[in-house]
Amino acid sequence: MANATLGVPSRVWRNPVRRLGPGLAGLLGLVALIEILPRVGLVDPRFLPPFSEILAALVGQAGSIEFWLALGDTMRGWATGLAIAVVLGVVLGILIGSNQVMRAATATTIEFLRPIPSVALIPLAVLLFGPDMRSTLLLVVYASFWQMLVQVLYGAQDVDPVARETARSYRLSRWTQVRTVTWPTALPYVMTGLRLAASVALILEVTGELIIGSPGLGRSIAVAQSSGAVSIMYALVMVTGLIGVVVNLGARACELRVLRWHPSIRAEAAR
Q1: DSSP letter string over 145-205?
Q2: Phi, psi of 46 (to 5 degrees)
Q3: Are the beta carbons of 193 and 89 closer than 8 angstroms?
């Protein structure tokens, strides 16, 4: 039983060349295009330098302490904002989703607040905290919180009514009902929300740094752009893209591990 359970994630990553080959080929094609277009004159190299120059700028950045400090600021802001959003989204999602009265009372408010773009809160964040990391943190928490809350709400509402009534008939405590009935049903939704929130949090972290000027890679990109260091600017943009890929792969791996018992994951592993 244990071997079968633990074998699911490993089967997911079977034949990595077949799974990753087309993606790597597309990436190499993009790299070749960025290298060739400026060199043949189809694109002004002042605005898009060849990939080899961007790569050289990236190597140069990797040797500077400022780059690593900015990277650390970005990752710290992203992780802090995501953690706050996940805790708030899970707790409030379970509380609201498990109670019909609370769902009815909060539905309109949630539907009103959720579509507000996080960038629209930048003036408010700057007024409250100034060009500080807390301003960007507010944007990150706000944007990723809704991703978590909505998914957890769906999960809590998806609980089998028979299972819910059975738990009540056995007079299980509220905590036991959440732990044994609500949470197993909501967990796939929680993992989907986590994957979505992780990407959204990174986008808002870099956006906040870029616009507000709080410490991080976003501010470094703005400084490079304003000083005419185009190669460095593209190198830093490339770093943010690589972080996004790593974040997405990490969230997906976490999802596969946590939900290795779920039929959808087992079916995916069997393909």
Answers
A1: HHHHHHHHHHHHHTS-HHHHHHHHHTT--HHHHIIIIIHHHHHHHHHHHHHHHHHHHHHHH
A2: -70, -25
A3: yes
> In the chain, at which residue ranges do the beta strands (DSSP E only) sit?
none
Residue matched to tokens 């708030």: 88
CB-count exposure of residue 165 (10 Å: 0-12, 13-18, 19+): exposed
- Supply the angle between the helices 2-12 and 263-270 in degrees, to the nearest 10: 60
Question: Whole-prediction pTM value?
Answer: 0.84
The pLDDT of residue 269 is 64
Q: In one letter, which amino acid is 94?
A: I
N-terminal to C-terminal alpha carbon distance within the chain: 20
> Residue 79 pLDDT more than 90?
yes
Gap between the Cα atoms of 195 and 261, Å rounded: 18
Residue 196 CA neighbour count, 13 Å, CB half: 17
Closest by Cα among 90, 101, 74 to 237: 74
Q: What percent of the chain is modeled with pLDDT above 90?
A: 55
Closest CA to 71 of 176, 246, 193, 220: 220
Q: Which two tokens stand for residue 205?
A: 């972290």
SS3 category, 114: coil
Neighbours of 123 (CB within 10 A): 9
SS3 119: helix
Burial 130-142 (b: 16+ CB within 10 A, else e): ebbbebbbbbbbb
Amino acid at 71: L
Q: For 187-230, what is each residue's pLDDT tens digit?
A: 999 999 999 999 999 999 999 999 999 999 999 999 999 999 99
Helix (H) or strand (E) holding 261: none
Report helix, strand or coil for 229.
coil
